[in-house]
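Chain A, query sequence.
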Amino acid sequence: MRRSNFALRLQPSLMEEARKVAESEGVALNQLINVAVAEKVSTMRTEEYFRERARRVDRAETLRILGRAGKGKPPMAGDELPPDWKEKSGTKKVGRLTTRRGVMSSARKPTKVSGTT
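Chain A, predicted structure.
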């Protein structure tokens, strides 16, 4: 593996926090930064992968397949709905997801915080 050097300028407060985390994790500061960069790159590549997959989706076919799921088969142990689950008109809860008119969305809206993944 080829190694390269890069002069990294961090704000003093961020550098101090990074040092504290590295120390508490028992790793060198350089290793902590390497792992942090690797995690960020991986996150961004994964996000792009799923974005590309979403562009190729055939919603009608997906909904057709989901509509057939479980037909003619009784629920298995562990498939029960929670006692407080109620079906609203036009809305069905599927685990942590909500479906409305055939479109799945998260029950809670994701929040984006600047500077985080």
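The chain has three helices and three strands. Residues 100-114 have pLDDT under 50 and may be disordered.
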